[in-house]
Specification:
- It contains 11 helices and 12 strands.
- It is of the alpha+beta class.
- It has 3 domains: about 5-125, 2-Layer Sandwich (Beta-Lactamase); about 125-200, Helix Hairpins; about 205-355, Heat Shock Protein 90 (2-Layer Sandwich).
- The strands form 3 sheets. The protein has a 5-stranded antiparallel sheet. A 5-stranded mixed sheet has the order 7-9-10-12-11, with helices on one face. A two-stranded antiparallel ribbon has the order 6-8.
Amino acid sequence: MNLSKAWSLKSMEGDSSIQDTLGDLLETLLDAAIVVGDDTRILASNASAYDAFGRNGAPLEGRRLSEVIRDFSLHDAFRKALSSGLSSEIDLELIGNETRKYTVRIAPINISGMTAAIGYFHDFTRIEKLERIRQEFLSNVSHELRTPLTSILAFVETLEDGAIDDQENGARFLSVIRRNAERMQRLIDDIQELTSIESGRILLEPRQCDLHSFVEDIFLSLKAKLSEKNITLVNEISQGITVFADPVRLEQMLVNLIDNGIKFNRKGGHVRVATTDSDQSTFVTVTDTGEGISSEHLTRIFERFYRTDRARSGDIGGTGLGLAICKHLARLHQGEITVTSSFGKGSTFTIELPKQL
């Protein structure tokens, strides 16, 4: 907001060039900036300050700083700049609907002979959040790699200690080593896939896909996984129904959801794939008769590595990245993926795909 549009002291009235220059300078800043006079009233601020500290469109100019931001350390830093000409830097945390964290630099300034102080508010909330996500990601990757790696090393050591001469046990140990190595490879592949999607390196090639045939082919590819639990796959999509999507990415999403429906189902259960239509979108649903997902987990189910039951998920297999990949692929299609679930009764995942991109 330009100072020429703001409340100002009489000492500045009539000098519109100073007002305009200061206002223009503040608006060049990406960070929020506030100029305070010697009576601690706000003389000027920029648009970022209005976004950060404005309430219901009320002006900031003319109000005391304590009315806008209630923080003793901030007020003290401005007073020192006004009374003693001292610059300072403080950390500020504002708690509201969302907690925001700032590094604030306060310095004295002179405006046409008038004492004032300016504060620059650098919002590092997002940086801190990204750093926390990075640390969690590295921790999760380390955990997911450590489990199969520990098993590989243990069985290699056993083989080196003489078990390799036992043909039966040696073959079994090698099988375990291969299985865990493949688990590590799947994790690395999924991390690379997710990284490619998030960085925008994945380009879609959408076209009309015959959804009924598409699902039948996926059922056939997953047939080998059905016998252990006696799971029934049901294709409720009528022949001739098409969906506008990249076939490779659509297969990736559906394989992941149907495979999860099989893995987390109960014996004798079923997985149903169906579709509904609206004017703008096609909705593909994958419903299972498994244990379901409790409400506390539903909001986080699409996060990377998030598992409702880590121990059970580890036994069943998987990298913990499949649903996160599905979420990003759905959004690449300008659609969305959602889940509804009744604990103890099963879950329904829904992919929304716009009819045109």
